[in-house]
Write a structure and sequence with these properties.
Helices cover 65% and strands 7% of the residues. By secondary structure, it is mostly helical. The chain folds into 2 domains: 334 residues, no CATH class; 120 residues, no CATH class. The strands form 3 sheets. It has a 3-stranded antiparallel β-sheet. α2 packs across α21, α7 runs parallel beside α17 and α14 runs parallel beside α17. The chain starts with a helix and ends in a 12-residue tail after the last strand.
């Protein structure tokens, strides 16, 4: 029997290296700050949607809140390391899932293929490392389908019903992280219903588990009138950005294929090599049902998310584990290669090549000014830490900060004024902005190119005259104290400003 130890010894260190690169070198993302800030507020007893505005499902801040000591101690890099751990846990569960769908003689190489396609993909690891919803959602999705596959393979009715209940509850948790993932529940339920002759009342127990999970996640917010109103407002926020754009959808899909080229090549070989046909001819019925639930579920959610006004390809990250498992399972039934070793070398080689040639590496290290290539003085994480030290120098021991770059609030351990909990995506009317800027007590302001620029919920650019008005109010109360160029997401200039009255945030009231 072929030993795969050397392939694991090749893939594991590479994945760790890429994960470290993603955590430390990966570009800053505005969303990181406000997701972590929401978790901080939850840990203080604040209620999502009621006490502050938030646009995603409630589960990520609830799960992250007990762990805020990590970013309080280590800053954003600590939060990324924690998120990366969750991401790797999801990959590990995907590896276990592919083994559930294949016989032993196929599963050993399949596990390595799934691991290489996911854990050696720099793009995938980056989005599983930054503290957004993707890592946690990927973990819940992977766990839900692992229990689903085990339930299908179970020969005992009681055990099967229990596993389906747990599976649905886990998929409901995924919908509690990202609401669009809720579509996986009806897809999986319908697959069970269409197989009623063999699985009997499995769909009913799956439905009970899904309902209980959704009630556990959303129940408290549905029972609180103000929170429910805020939850509805969050969905209107997403809808306000406009309608479907086929041009943007095609562009998003094109980029998705680029980031996951190795997986799509394996999918193509599975079709060309007869893997899909052979799988449906000879695989056990349980494996076929699980495959259909994975493929249809993932493609359905991807299709819905492509209908979004701005369908960013990273929305699909929590689903790529499912697609990868499905592609590898079908590939294992094909006859493209006479030996699984050749398939492993192809998979590992493609994954390494695509990660090494990833445009992300260039974005993280270089910039462009017309004809000239700009070498970044330092990575964005290091610049964030430099900015945090400078803010501390300007306001030693301070507790508040006027900023819309909330990763600065996380890195410095400071509060931002009420209403700015979502950074540049915070919903404030013009009058509310004027009142905030005229009365804010923060001794230091850290204002990047994102400040006042985005006009939510449409998220177009705020009119220039309004931006100038807000800047003039800031100028009337703050003086220039420093500047950091090439800072943060998409490298804008960060202005550091100090209150003219010299007040310290140790003296100023904290709201």
């Amino acid at each position: 029997m072929e030993s795969y130890k050397k392939y694991w010894l090749l893939s594991l260190p590479a994945s760790i290296f890429l994960a470290v690169a993603a955590v430390w070198l990966g570009g800053l993302n505005q969303d990181e700050g406000w997701y972590l800030y929401a978790a901080n507020l939850v840990s203080e007893g604040k209620m999502l949607y009621r006490d502050f505005f938030y646009t995603q499902g409630p589960l990520m801040p609830l799960v992250y809140s007990p762990f805020k000591f990590i970013w309080n101690s280590f800053g954003l890099v600590g939060a990324r390391a924690f998120t990366s751990f969750l991401g790797f846990a999801g990959i590990a569960v995907a590896v276990l899932t592919v083994a559930q769908l294949l016989p032993d003689n196929r599963s050993r190489s399949a596990k390595l293929m799934v691991f290489a396609l996911l854990a050696c993909n720099l793009y995938h690891l980056y989005y599983l490392s930054i503290p957004k919803t993707y890592a946690l959602a990927s973990l819940f999705v992977a766990l839900g389908y692992l229990f689903y596959a085990r339930a299908l393979a179970s020969g005992e009715a009681k055990a099967r019903y229990g596993l389906f209940t747990v599976s649905a509850a886990l998929l409901a948790m995924a919908a509690g992280v990202r609401i669009s993932l809720g579509l996986l529940l009806p897809v999986c339920g319908l697959v069970l219903l269409f197989n009623y002759s063999r699985l009997k009342w499995s769909f009913l127990f799956f439905g009970i588990g899904g309902f209980a999970g959704l009630l556990l996640v959303y129940g408290a917010f549905l029972c609180d009138a103000e929170a429910f109103q805020g939850l509805c407002a969050a969905q209107k926020y997403h809808a306000a950005r406009g309608g479907f754009s086929p041009v943007l959808a095609v562009g998003s899909l094109s980029r998705l294929v680029r980031w996951y080229v190795p997986m799509f090549i394996i999918a193509g070989l599975a079709v060309v090599g007869g893997g899909v046909k052979n799988f449906f001819r000879s695989a056990p019925e349980a494996a076929r049902c699980a495959f259909l639930a994975m493929a249809i579920g993932a493609l359905s959610v991807i299709g819905v998310q492509m209908l979004a006004p701005c369908p960013y390809e990273d929305y699909q990250v929590p689903l790529m584990g499912l697609l990868t498992v499905a592609c590898v399972v079908a590939f294992q039934y094909g006859d493209v290669f006479s030996s699984p070793v050749k398939a492993l070398w192809l998979t590992i080689g493609l994954s390494f090549a695509v990660s090494f040639g990833s445009p992300l590496l260039e974005e993280w290290t270089d910039g462009q000014d017309r004809f000239w290539t700009l070498r970044k003085k330092d990575c964005e994480m290091a610049l964030l830490r430099d900015a945090a030290r400078e803010i501390e120098r300007l306001d030693p021991g301070g507790k508040t900060l006027l900023t819309q770059d909330l990763y600065l609030a996380i890195e410095t351990g400071r509060r931002v004024p009420d209403g700015l909990e979502m950074g540049p995506f915070s919903m404030l009317s013009d009058d509310e902005w004027r009142d905030l800027l005229r009365n804010v007590e923060c001794p230091v302001a850290a204002l990047s190119g994102y400040t006042f620029a985005i006009d939510p919920p449409v998220c177009g650019e705020r009119p220039a005259d309004e931006q100038i008005e807000f800047w003039n109010i800031v100028k009337s109360r703050y003086s220039y104290a420093g500047q950091i160029d090439g800072f943060g997401q998409n490298s804008t200039s960060l202005l550091l400003l100090k209150r003219d009255d010299g007040i310290s945030s140790r003296e100023a009231p904290v709201k």
